[in-house]
Amino acid sequence: MLANKTALVTGSTSGIGLGIAKALARQGANIVLNGFGDAEVPRSEIAALGAQVAYHGADMSKPDEIEAMMAFAASTFGQVDILVNNAGIQHVARVENFPVERWDAVIAINLSSAFHASRLALPAMQKANWGRIINVASVHGLVGSAEKSAYVAAKHGIVGLTKVTALENATSGVTCNAICPGWVLTPLVQKQVDAKAVAQGISNAEATRQLLGEKEPSMQFTTPEELGELAVFFCSPAGNNVRGVAWNMDGGWAAQ
Ligand code: NAD
């Protein structure tokens, strides 16, 4: 379905980004990976699906590196047809104790990076009259949780950015939508499980049960594979008139 299209997925060396990149690769898209850490294993996993794959290690907190990544994608594959703004980090502390440097980093990586990548991707999408911008927000784009001020502010912000981007392109073939996962067992969440286990002197299994039990009625993690299939839907012809939605896949978290 996505043959001859190119998808750039930020923060795709692990977790949800890698799951979405694989789902788009299975549909035939060329993939540009981004993120920290080992890129060789993700790269070979995507190549094994038969897709063309490239990698750029831009730090998504730095606008000049985002510009270099977008130029690299265009020169490698022609243009970016599908942009998935996924890179994200977490920091947990009460507002009065929140380190200023962590606030700035969360806002830069989880929110401002999506603005920069979108502003750079949109002109070519508008010219082609086809494009998909998929912002990986969170259930925290819809509701709050204590001790996650920067994250919740960034995720509510990206839901707003999604709506405005969708509206500005509403009469064209360019759509913009957000995905709002609940708990997904990736390195980002594993750190929170580990911290809970240590803080309360409980096992990892008990910490996991408590984490799900506090918020997610299904008592199940959403998987990167399920989120990847939602991204594929947004890219499909059936998604042509889906514009500006914030679609939660959260086991009922936001329904409470
Ligand atoms: P993860 O830690 O597995 O992956 C994060 C990715 O972002 C990695 O590839 C990492 O290298 C990259 N990254 C981090 N900082 C970066 C930077 N400055 N520049 C470039 N890349 C950077 O986390 P994940 O759980 O897969 O999270 C992906 C997205 O999904 C994030 O936006 C997160 O907020 C969102 N999300 C996650 C969950 C969850 O439960 N895991 C729930 C809702 C939303």
Describe the overall structure:
The longest helix has 29 residues, at 100-128. The protein is 48% helix and 14% strand. It has a seven-stranded parallel sheet, with helices on both faces. α1 (15-26) runs parallel beside α2 (40-47) and α4 packs parallel to α5. The chain starts with 5 loop residues before the first strand and ends in a 7-residue tail after the last strand. The mean pLDDT is 97. The chain has 256 residues and is of the alpha/beta class. Nicotinamide-adenine-dinucleotide is lined by residues 11-17, 34-37, 59-61, 86-89, 109-110, 136, 138, 181, 183-184, 186-189.
List the main descriptive attributes of the protein structure presented here.
256 residues, binds nicotinamide-adenine-dinucleotide, single chain, alpha/beta, seven-stranded parallel sheet
Taking the sheet with the most strands, its summary is: 7 strands, parallel
Which structural class matches the secondary elements?
A: alpha/beta
Helix content: 40-55%
Q: Order of helices and strands, N to C? A: EHEHEHEHEHEHHHE
Outline the low-pLDDT stretches: none
Q: How many separate helices?
A: 8
Shape: globular
- Count every beta strand, where a strand is a DSSP E run of 2 or more residues: 7
Beta-strand percentage range: 5-15%
Strand order of the largest sheet: 3-2-1-4-5-6-7
Gap from first CA to last CA: 36 Å
Q: Which small compounds were modeled alongside the protein? A: nicotinamide-adenine-dinucleotide
How large is the radius of gyration? 18 Å
Mean pLDDT: 97
